[in-house]
Specification:
Layout lengths: L2 H9 L5 H10 L13 H29 L3 H11 L4 H8 L5 H12 L5 H8 L10 H12 L3 H4 L2 E2 L5 E2 L3 E7 L5 E7 L3 H19 L8 H15 L2 H15 L5 E2 L12 E5 L6 H4 L4 H22 L1 E3 L7 E3 L5 E3 L5 E3 L2 H16 L3 H10 L11 H8 L4 H4 L4 E2 L2 H12 L6 H6 L4 H4 L2 H13 L3 E2 L1 H8 L10 H13 L11
Parallel strand pairs: 5-9
Antiparallel strand pairs: 1-3, 2-3, 3-4, 4-6, 7-10, 8-9, 11-12
Helix pairs in contact: 1-3, 2-6, 3-4, 6-7, 10-11, 14-22, 15-16, 16-17, 19-22
Length: 499
């Protein structure tokens, strides 16, 4: 990988995941005369940080390889030797492995089946495994936030993290009240690392304007900044999680762990400890179980959007625990977008024209009014339908439809691969603020469903969730959900979710 590409990887903000995929596949960054390396001191500084991060990441990869061939006792010794023991070490590792940029790697591991397998395999570790900070450093954060060492704060504290990811790592504990909990501890220095990424976001998006001249990068960056800054505040995440847990309490297939307020703060988030299997084990289950899990994931994403006016914007495999029968535990609520009624009406209007009325003229008029495409572009209405119709394909037909890896990869290409037949529209397209986080459905959720080869009558399921259709239950799962809803939310077909 060239130094220029390493620098670009370091600088890419959260929502540039698809561009990152294109870069990985092509082996080169987008051409831009004002790119990171050419921008003087700032480019050189970021390049040095990127190389430092790459060195840290490479050391961790070598560590993981060595521990495979050692016994359990030696593995523990190797792990202790590699732990990030100081804030400075964590800050250095953030250059490549943690912070907002780690989310790029997390998504790249599953978002496009066209990536070389060795690249996807390496990036897959980022879904739930990254170099952990030491037990002492994690304890220091807890002491600073909650006023006590975890050994005193909890009846039992496991100093070894059970997961480490982009913003923090998770430990098991047992409260003095006898409750098993998961304690997420934010990495010291992660806020500064993310701030650095965000400070460069406008710079990078402006450079991408060479490829996508229709992109209003300032509005996009403003939306990203607001969402990502919120994700750094665990008090905001706790409020999000409480709201979702309150609404989905008792749901047949959607489980949200409850927040334990006594042990939570701005940099520490404690919730109920949940069981269930990880993504890798789900992939060994029967296709029937995969389809049930996929149905729950779909219902959670679009049910939250259309019924609650809220979307949990971080769909990736590391955020789920799976149970037989389609029950899924959802773990991360740091990146949640709340929508206005007007914004939801706009989404519904596009669906109505594309899927229900098949009105090409009205659909094009809507996307132009919303700013997704400019008015007067030299393409036909049929061209617009051909280009954007892909995103609605699996709900446009009645009967079973299998979402495949090829379908998910084509979704990415429709966004960013300007070498194909849709180049005129791709280059002219814009992404208004209200669509920035919602694109994660197309780039993240569809990739997951493609991995599962998820099969279902998505049109009928969607019609249950679309408030402008409000269709009857269409699956056995839907019948259980309908009974729960009548008991739990008897007076509301949809509700704005309040924190």
């Amino acid at each position: 990988m060239t130094p220029r590409l390493r620098a670009l990887r370091f600088l890419l903000p959260l929502s540039l995941i698809a561009a990152f995929v294109v870069v990985l596949k092509s082996g080169r960054p987008p051409r831009n005369s004002t790119g990171p390396v050419q921008n003087g001191a700032r480019g050189a500084r970021n390049l040095r940080l990127a190389l430092l991060g790459a060195k840290t990441g490479g050391a961790y990869a070598r560590h993981r390889a060595r521990r495979v061939f050692t016994d359990a006792g030696k593995r523990q010794e190797l792990d202790l030797a590699f732990e990030l023991k100081t804030t400075q070490q964590v800050a250095e590792a953030l250059g490549q492995m943690k912070g907002a940029l780690m989310k790029v790697g997390q998504m790249a591991s599953y978002i496009d089946q066209g990536l070389p397998e060795h690249v996807r395999s390496a990036l897959a570790d980022l879904q739930q495994n990254a170099p952990p900070m030491s037990a002492e450093l994690a304890a220091q954060v807890i002491y600073e936030e909650l006023g006590k060492h975890p050994d005193e704060l909890f009846a039992t504290w496991d100093p070894a993290p059970i997961a480490s990811a982009s913003i923090g790592q998770v430990h098991r504990a047992l409260t003095h009240e006898g409750q098993a909990v998961a304690v997420k501890v934010q990495y010291p220095g992660v806020a500064e690392a993310v701030a650095s990424d965000l400070n460069n976001a406008g710079f990078i998006f402006a450079g991408l304007g060479v490829l996508f001249p229709g992109l209003d990068h300032k509005a996009l960056v403003a939306e990203l900044r607001e969402r990502v800054v919120e994700e750094l505040d665990y008090e905001t995440e706790a409020a999000n999680q409480r709201a979702f847990a309150r609404y989905y309490d008792g749901h047949p297939t959607i489980h949200i762990p409850h927040v334990i307020d006594l042990y939570s703060s701005r940099r520490v988030l404690t919730t109920e400890l949940s069981d269930g299997v990880r993504w890798e084990e789900l992939m060994t289950w029967s296709q029937k179980e995969k389809d049930l899990a996929a149905e729950t994931l779909y219902r959670f994403a679009f049910g939250g959007l259309y019924r609650l006016a809220a979307f949990n914007g971080d769909p990736h495999p590391g955020n789920y625990l799976f149970h037989p029968g389609g029950r899924v535990t959802f773990l991360d609520f740091g990146l949640v977008k709340y929508f206005t009624a007007a914004e939801l009406d706009e989404f519904g209007e596009m669906i109505q024209h594309m899927v229900i009325d098949h009105d090409a003229v009205a659909f094009r008029s809507t996307v132009e009014r919303l700013g997704l495409l400019p008015a007067g572009l030299d393409v036909t209405d049929a061209d617009v339908i051909d280009y954007l119709g892909h995103f609605y394909e699996f709900v446009a037909v009645e009967g079973d439809f299998t979402i495949t890896p090829d379908y998910a990869s084509e979704t990415v290409r429709r966004f960013f691969d300007t070498s194909g037949p849709y180049a005129v529209m791709q280059k002219a397209a814009n992404l208004p603020g209200s669509f920035v986080i919602i694109q994660r459905i197309s780039l993240g959720l569809y990739a997951i469903l493609g991995e599962l080869h998820a099969t279902g009558d998505w049109r009928k399921i969607a019609e249950e969730l679309w408030p402008f259709v409000d269709g009857p239950p269409s699956t056995p799962m839907a019948l259980e959900i309908d009974a729960w809803r009548r008991l739990r939310h008897p007076d509301a077909k949809g509700a704005m979710l309040s924190r």
